[in-house]
Amino acid sequence: MPYTVNNTRGSVVSTVNDGTTATVGGITLIGKNFTGYGETVAEDFIKLLENNANTTAPADPQEGQLWWDTTYQSLKVYNSSTQWHPTTVHVGTTYPHAVTTGCLWFDTSTGQLNVNSTGLATGFKQLAQASTKTNVQVISFTAGAVDDVEHNGYTVDSDVEVLAEVVESSAGVKEVIRVVSPAAFQIKSTSANVSVSGTVEYAVYNTFSADITVSASTISANCLIHGVNLKDSLQSEGVSADTLGSHSATAYLRLTDTNPQVVMGHIKPPTHGTAATDPAVQVGTASIDLGADGAYFRNLYAMSLISQYGDIAERYEADDVYEAGTVVSLAGEKEITQTTEFKDTKVFGVVSTKPGLKLNALAGDDATHPYIAYQGRVLTKVSGSVSKGDRLVSSSLPGVAQLIEDENNIDYRAVIGRSLVDKTSEEVEIIPIAIGVK
Questions:
Q1: pTM, entire model
Q2: Which three-class secondary structure string do you get for 246-277?
Q3: Where is 183: in which H helix or E strand?
Q4: Dihedrals φ, ψ of 142, to 5°?
Q5: Alpha carbons 289 and 298: distance in angstroms, whole number
């Protein structure tokens, strides 16, 4: 009579008929009255002892089964998604196993521990890395030539000390990423160690090149500018030293008090404005940005900020695309939606297109995350006649404000702001209001 074999969870694994055998996970199950079963039982014990050690996986594997892969000398476990997962971290320059989600690989070529997040060969992500060290070294050069303006008293053959920031990888590879120089000069080729490969001096001499002006001529090779010299980046005085040749020096804002762009105590963008003229009467608008997308200043310190526009706004996720001047509330399926009821106490702000101060700028774009003004002066859709100073609330018109009407019975939670002008028409118009003022 055949018998049924169940696994730990009570599921049927196999049915073994009398006088026969069945194979499950590389192990032979023996039916009743099967002759010569002793050898089969002994082999089953050996297979269990060595975890089916072989170059190929056992047939019909069961969830949780172990297999010693002799090709890669790795113990693997089987799961219900029909995959064999290595239970150890593979060490080597490449990952030779069949890639599975969650597998670990220590890449000996980079010194990084990686985990696979997708089950694809491209899905390995760095999990950890041997520490990278940084240090700052003071190194000396001899000046071969000095800039006409940015020399700071140094002359030809002066000994100049600079600060070099060095990054050293776990493999011992050193790279100079930044040099701070007290002057703009060309490094003399006979300076100590400039011809010795592997030294910091050599790395500076062979990596950093900037345009300096000497006797009205431009010298580029093996030069440092006055200030911060960065490899492949922008900071402070113009562009990085080793890429200056591909950029115009006047395309970037330079922040030195001796630079001609400083006019009567004001830093002026290059190629804009008139030298020696008070900035208050300058004609024209500069087109230079301070920083850019993906290249942000860490902190800005100032006594005051001057902005042409008048409101403070922040990006919020909207449930639809709203035009400028639309009154919104903290409601709807997203963070904000346009108001639709009179005296909405959840009223929050107004869609602004030209905020004076933009917050949460990277949250999205104007379609999905418009700037919502909640303080200051902002153009707003208003229905009906209002007088300067009147308090405004949301109306029943979508996204439109109106006069509160009864100021003797005010729920200040519903006040969006106060009108800054007189409006005589009953139509919807866009007018400036002082938002956030009760």
A1: 0.42
A2: HCCHHHCCCCCCCCCCEECCEECCCCCCCCCC
A3: none
A4: -105, 130
A5: 15
- The residue among 130 and 139 whose pLDDT is bigger is 139
- Inter-residue contact 254 to 238 (CB < 8 Å): yes
Place of tokens 């939606």: 337
Domains of the chain: 3-49 (no CATH), 133-251 (no CATH), 258-290 (no CATH), 311-435 (2.40.300.10)
Round to whole Å and give the CA distance between 148 and 134: 34
State residue 357 phi and psi, 5-degree precision.
-140, 120
Residue recorded with tokens 């591909």: 246
Q: Which residues contact 324 (CB under 8 A, 6 or more apart)?
A: 351, 352, 353, 379, 430
Dig out the tokens for 324 from the structure: 């400028």
Q: For residue 388, how many C-alpha atoms fall within 13 Å in the half-sphere facing its CB?
A: 3
> How far apart are the C-alpha atoms of 343 and 402, rounded to whole Å?
9
Cβ-Cβ contacts under 8 Å for 5 (sequence gap 6 or more): 12, 13, 14, 15, 16, 22, 24, 29
pLDDT tens across 50-73, in order? Answer: 999 999 989 888 888 898 888 888
Give the sign of the dihedral formed by CA 329, CA 331, CA 336, CA 341.
negative
Question: Distance between the two ends of the chain, CA-based, in angstroms?
Answer: 90
> Is the separation of the CB atoms in 209 and 232 below 8 Å?
no
Name the pLDDT band for 108 (thresholds 50, 70, 90): confident
DSSP strand pairing (391-394 vs 357-359) = unpaired
Per-residue confidence (pLDDT) for residue 261, from 0 to 100? 46
Is residue 201 within 8 Å of 139, Cβ to Cβ? yes
Q: What sign does the dihedral 197-202-204-205 (CA atoms) show?
A: negative
pLDDT tens-digit readout, 340-364 = 999 999 999 999 988 999 999 888 8
Q: Where are the alpha helices (DSSP H) in 326-409?
A: none
Show the tokens assigned to 381.
């859709």
